[in-house]
Amino acid sequence: MSQNSRLSIAFDAGHLDLPDGNVVVLRAHSDPVLNRFDTIMAVQSFKPEYDRLEQMGISVSAEIPSDADSVIVELGRSKGENLAMISRAHQMLPDGGVLIVDGYKTDGIESILKLLRKIVPINGVFSKSHGKTIWLTKSGQTPDVMRNWASAIEPRKNRDGFFTADGMFSADHIDPASQLLIAQITKPLAGMGADLGAGWGWLSHQALSEHEKIKTMELIEAEKTAIDCAKRNIDDPRAIFEWQDVTKFSGKSRFDFVLCNPPFHQSRKADPELGRQFIRKAAEILNPKGTLYLVANKQLAYETVLDETFQSWEYMAQTSQYKTIRADRPKASRR
Ligand SMILES: C[S@@+](CC[C@H](N)C(=O)[O-])C[C@H]1O[C@@H](n2cnc3c(N)ncnc32)[C@H](O)[C@@H]1O
């Protein structure tokens, strides 16, 4: 059952009654429940989900609007980001506006409910499918403690001095897997490069600062908040920033090298297939003499797809947690 199906059931059961006016859905997922609302703005900064919402014909924006008559917050995995979304949602509402928070136990919905109960009156809670839907009516100003939660999604410097915000991959520090990959690239990088799933930009930042023969470095990243941070983290005219779904990226045979620390989750589940799609995409966009530099968690099975897509490949380093791989010359059928 999807997160929004719980919402559908809660609406059908008559638990939820929204005032007239526009409904904003933060971290919206493409689910038929959104078709219930006449005036809806879905907010989604992750490009594949943004595209799916657009395909459904839903108005969608990557930016959080400043007002709404009702707001639905769909929880994700980051506590800081979840609380920030609830804070922004509450601040957006007029007195009498309705706030709905929906999420799984694994998203921390139960601790959020406990926290909210201490701060504001809750109208109701509906439990279903390992999760909960909570709703409340705004009355009075947003309490200071809740207002302060919003800062978690404002970019700030992490312990390594790079701009990041809660919710993005390895927000607190440089990812050790990416560090390992950069340390293994001893041959000079040159020409046109791409960074698939660039996050807040560390791999490209390092490559650009260590390899002067790089002409351009395209950072392709699906999470808008992360690519916006990458823009702040990299001050180099050779960098090109693209908010895009890698699996839809077209750049056939254009690149001399690709750097990649691929995502290993699709929505909630660990899913090596997404990483395999990134490897296939790398083979497609590299020129016939191009090289892919990849790092992955050791247990993820990428070897067969590397055999299928590259003339040769080798492990550069293997640790107890990670493997780094260099793959050369994509096979012709992939280009
Ligand atoms: C393992 S992280 C690596 C981030 C960064 N390269 C680093 O080393 O810190 C993978 C990144 O891929 C992004 N991502 C996930 N799915 C994507 C997709 N379909 N297209 C583009 N980027 C995606 C995630 O948002 C995340 O930032």
Radius of gyration: 22 Å
Along the chain, the helix and strand elements come as HEEHEEHEHEEHEEHEHEHEEEEHEHEE
Name the structural class: alpha/beta
| Bulk shape | elongated
Percent in helix: 25-40%
Domain Methyltransferase small: 162-325
Keywords: Cytoplasm, Methyltransferase, rRNA processing, S-adenosyl-L-methionine, Transferase
Protein name: MFS transporter
Organism: Paramylibacter ulvae
Description:
This protein is α/β, with parallel strands linked by helices and 335 residues long. It has 2 domains: 3-153, Vaccinia Virus protein VP39 (Rossmann fold); 156-334, Rossmann fold (3-Layer(aba) Sandwich), CATH 3.40.50.150. The chain is built from 10 helices and 18 strands. The chain has a 7-stranded mixed beta sheet with strand order 3-2-1-4-5-7-6, sandwiched between helices. The mean pLDDT is 95. S-adenosylmethionine is lined by residues 48, 169-170, 175, 178, 197-199, 202-203, 220-223, 226, 245-247, 261, 263.
